[in-house]
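Extended Data, panel c. Modelled sequence:
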Amino acid sequence: MATSQPLAAQAGLQMLRDGGNAIDAAVATAAVLNVVEPMSTGIGGDMFALIWDKNERKVVSLNGSGRQAAAANVADVRKAGYESIQNNGEGSHFAVSVPGTVHGWETALNQYGRMTLREVLKPAIDYALNGFPVSEVIAHFWSSEDTITKLNHRPSGRELLPGAAANGGPKYGEIVKLPELGRTLQMIAEGGSEAFYKGEIAKKTADFIQKEGGWLTEADLANHHSDWDEAISTNYRGVDIWECPPNGQGIAALIALNLAEGFDIGSMGAQSADRYHYLIESMRHGYADAFQYVADPRVAEVPIDPLLSKDYANRRRAGISGVQADPNVSYGDPMGSADTVYLTAVDGEGTAVSFINSLFNGFGTGLVVPGTGMALQNRGSLFSFDPNHPNYLEGNKRPFQTIIPAMATKDDEMWLSFGVMGGFMQPQGHLQVASNMIDFGMDSQEALDAPRFKVEVEGNQDVMVEEDLSPDVVKELEKRGHTVNVVSGYDRANFGGGQVISRDPETGVLTAGSEPRKDGAAVGY
C-alpha cells in the first residue's frame, strides 16, 4: 500500500489484514485521504482507476468522472460576464460538474472488491467524527492565504476550516474534526451511492448550486454512472505502459514515450542535459496533441489509435532538434498528412490497483455544500469555448481530465502500478518515472527520488527544474533555448508526489516507493 499520508495508508493496510483485497484497501485509503487531506480529494470530485485483473491477466480501466450538467452552455457563461469558466470565487458555480467519486468507489468494489462501502468507509468516518492530527505539509497548504480566502468565500466553506476561521487554518499537530463530512460519509456508508446521487445529499447539492446560479440539478446527479473502458497503452522498449483513455490526459504520456523511444536515452545519463532536453521536447509534443484532441470520446471523435501509432511518432519526432528547443510546438495530424491524491495497492493474490482521486484545484471551487462538509470540484473549467474543438462545452459531456493512474506490464505480467500527482505534471511524471526505471534500471524509490522537470504547458512553456539539478545542466538547457526556473522549498510540490509498487513477474516480490517531493507536498490536482 503506497500513498501520501500515513493514516490513509494504515487504513488500507487494515482492510488487507481484515481479509479485503487491493480494491478494498484503495477505496478505504481514498476515503481517509478525503478527511485528512481534504484540499486534495473528496466525494465532491472524480476518480479513475486501472486494475490488474489477475484472472483475465489484463489491465482494465474505470472512469469514475462526472459529466457536466445537461443545461450547460457557453451562452450562459458569457451572459454572466465571463469569457471562460472560473476556477473559484464568483462564477465558479459553472465549473461544478457531477462528482463521480462515490459511484466510482462503489463500482470498483462491486466488480472487484470483497468488502462493502460500509466496511471500507469506517476509518474515514472515525477520523472525521473523532479527530486526527494534521500533518506538517498538509497544515501548510490547508492554512495558506489562498485556501483561507477560497473557503471563506461562502459561509459553508468554514465547515472545512474547523476552528480556523479566526486563526488562519489548522496548525501542524492540531487535532481536527470534520463532523459535517463525517455525517455525510455515514449516510453513504448506510445507503451506498444511491444515498449520494438521490435523496438528501443530492437535493442539498443541487439546491446550493442552483442558488449560486449554476446548472447542476437533482436529475443530473441521479443520471450519473461510471464506465468501464478499454485501457490504452504503448510499448516502450519492451514494456507496455498503460493509461486510462480520454477524457483523461494519459495519452499525452504515451505519445511522449513513443517519441522518446527513438532517442538513445539510456546512454545520455539520468541527469544529463541531453536527456532532459529530449524528454522535455517529447513532452511538449505530447501535450500539444493532447490539448488539441482529448475530449469525451462518447460525445466527440478522439483519434486514439492514430495518435498512438509508431508511424505517427516517427513523423513527429523528425521535428525535434537535439540542439535547439522548438519555440512553438504545434499539434500534429495523426490521421496522416488542477489538488489530487494518488494511491496504489497490490495484494498477496496479485490483484493490483492504480487509483487517483481529485477535486482538481485545492478544495476545488471552494464551494462547500452547506451541512455536508463536501467541497465541489472545478473540473468544468477545463472545457473549451471553441465550437470547433472536441472539448467544447456541452451538456452531459465529460470535460478534459488531468487525473491519471498508470500501470506497466512485462510479458503479460503486472510489473508496475504507479502515479505522480500535480495536474499537468502527471503525464510528465509518468514519462520520467518510466524512463528512470526502464532506461536506467532504477528501483521504485530511486525513480521517485530522482529530480524531475515540469514544462509549464498552460502558459509560456517555461521549464521548472528542482534545485538538485546541476547548474551546468541548467546552463546547457538555457543554451538550447529553454527558459529554466529552478524551484526549491514548498514550491517543489509543483513536481508532484508519487507512489510506485513494482512486482517481480517471476518471484512475485513487491517493492514500494513513495515520496512527498522533498520539501513539497504529496498533493496535486
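The longest strand covers residues 46-53. This feature is highlighted in the accompanying rendering.
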